[in-house]
Amino acid sequence: MNDFDARAADWDKNPIRIERANAVALTIHQQVKLSKKMTALEYGCGTALLSFALQPYLGPITLADSSTGMLAVVREKIAASGVQNMTPMRLDLSADPVPAERYQLIYTLMTLHHIPQADRVLQSFYAMLEPSGHLCIADLDKEDGSFHSRDFTGHHGFDRDELRRKLLDLGFVNIHISTCYEIAKNEREYPLFLAVAVKK
Question: Lower Cβ count inside 10 Å, N or C end of the chain?
Answer without folding.
Answer: N
